[in-house]
Amino acid sequence: MSESVDFQALVERLQDRDWSALTESLPALQDRDLAALISELDAHLWEPLFRQIPTHRQADVFAYLSEDRQQTLVLSLLETDRITLLTALSYDDAAAVIAGLPESMGVETLATLSERDRWVIRSLLAYPEESAGRLMTPEFIALEADWTLAQALDHVRYTHEESETANSAFITDETGRLLGFVKLQDLLLGAADRRVSSLMRTDVISTPTRTDQEEVARIMRRYDLEVLPVVDEREILVGIITVDDVMDVAAEETTEDFLRMGSVGVGPIVLNLRNASANLLYRKRVGWLLILVVVNVFAGAAISVFETAIEAVVALVFFLPMVIATGGNAGTQASTLMVRSLATGDVQLRDWLPLWGKELAVSIALGATLGLAIWGAAAWLGGPEVGLAVAVAMSLVVVVGSMVGLLLPMILTRLNMDPATASAPLVTSIADVGGILVYFSVAIAILP
To answer: Which pTM was predicted?
Structure first.
């Protein structure tokens, strides 16, 4: 935040409703600083603060706010102020806001916009959620290949305010089909009578409208793109996705993955811990915890099956928590690596066999090392046979946990489920049940 602005002084002016002094302070804050300030304040302060921001800046500040704060703010605005704000936003941002409104309010708000705005926003909302079509903006610069550079620059000057980005222009034919792109600096530096086609690059990377937003982020990251053109099934250019939109997607997807890996369900909104109610936090967490309780019931049932073995060799109980926890930890390590690799596109489902072989070799080596480490303590407390049983069980439990951690994310991906659902608690619970069965089965086989 700008160092020349006293944050506490701004808060005091808000609390005192000193609007004139507050208005004088706002020009010293950048749009992003204002958004950060709004994010730090309680609703009774940030709502009046937003209304004091000059109208021509509100849309830019609004774009930097979190999604939940955007929705809360829009719902608090008067209809005329809401319309003014939505009209100033880019089409993709306006579509996202309307999609988040209650259905009746969204329909009413959309009806108050201009005919062109209504048509564009409805066309964006027609695409699936979290798709390239919903993420893109239809505001871009399109040129024709047979134009001269002078004609092209005149067109850029005329349409640049309607474009999301002014770094690149895309070349289309008379039907709108994407042919290539050109850097605007090349247009500026080239001779005025040259044709756009002479500067056009045809190695353009595009994506269909129905591409998932995570895949869009991967494409832009892989090819280091500032802007990605979006085409329909006829290869007609219908919009572009800019790098700032992808940064928002990456942050959102990362948050969702962390929540899922912590067994916290996510719904239509991204969970904001500071602003979430206790009831919402309860509902987000209770479902998975109940599922994990059911899974762990099987762990208790597995122990009861081996009650006789436990009574015969009490020393087995001493090492049970250590062996089972180690298997769960090994599974968590494997699942974390796999979920991350699937999310970044480093591995595909077709890679499962070589990955399985590699993980099997690694887990055998890890299990043998850990088994050897625990053998001495087990032999000292329970005798050589107990030491052997615990060491072998440790080795096998580590292998079982690692296999669960590796394969569960792949199975979920194959079932079109988010692999992040293979969270640490879920992997650990499944590995616990398998580990208990392995531990006591080995003990019964080795011990007299």
So the answer is: 0.63
**How far, in Å, CA of 444 to CA of 47, rounded?**
68
- In this predicted structure, what is the pLDDT of residue 348? 82
Paired with 131 in beta bridges are 212
CATH code assigned at 366? 1.10.357.20
Residue 357 burial class via C-beta count within 10 angstroms: exposed 0-12, middle 13-18, buried 19 and up: exposed
User: For 392-434, what is each residue's pLDDT tens digit?
Assistant: 999 999 999 999 988 888 888 888 776 665 566 778 788 888 8
Same domain? 233 vs 363: no
Gap between the Cα atoms of 251 and 278, Å rounded: 24
Averaged over 239-247, what is the pLDDT?
85
- Would you say how long the chain is, in residues? 448
SS3 assignment, position 53: coil
What would the pLDDT profile of 299-332 be if each residue is shown by its tens digit? 667 677 776 766 666 677 788 888 888 888 888 8
Mean pLDDT on 100-120? 89
User: Phi and psi at residue 242, in whole multiples of 5°?
Assistant: -100, 165
**Buried b or exposed e, range 367-390, using 16+ CB within 10 angstroms:** bbebbeebbeebbeebeeebbbbb
Share of the chain above pLDDT 70, in %: 81
| C-alpha–C-alpha distance, residues 273 and 136, integer Å | 29
Residues 208 and 295 in one domain: no
Using an 8 Å Cβ cutoff, are 263 and 426 in contact?
yes
- What is the domain count for the chain? 3
* CB-based contact 217:130 (threshold 8 Å): no
Structure tokens at 265: 């369900």
Residues 298 and 205 in one domain: no
Block residue for tokens 């994407």: 178
97 C-beta neighbours (distance < 10 Å), count: 22
Token output for 276: 């979430």
CATH number of the domain encompassing residue 49: 1.25.60.10
Place of tokens 């921001």: 53
Is 252 a residue whose pLDDT tops 50? yes
**Domain ranges, residue 31:** 7-131
C-alpha to C-alpha distances, 9 to 16, 21, 26, 29, 203, nearest whole angstrom: 10, 10, 12, 13, 54
Tell me, yes or no, whether 151 and 126 share the same domain.
no
Largest alpha-carbon pair distance within the chain?
A: 95
Sheet order of strands, 142-144 included:
142-144, 168-172, 178-183
Query: Which pLDDT score is estimated for 1?
Result: 45
The DSSP result for 212-233, as a single string, is BHHHHHHHHHHTT-SEEEEE-T
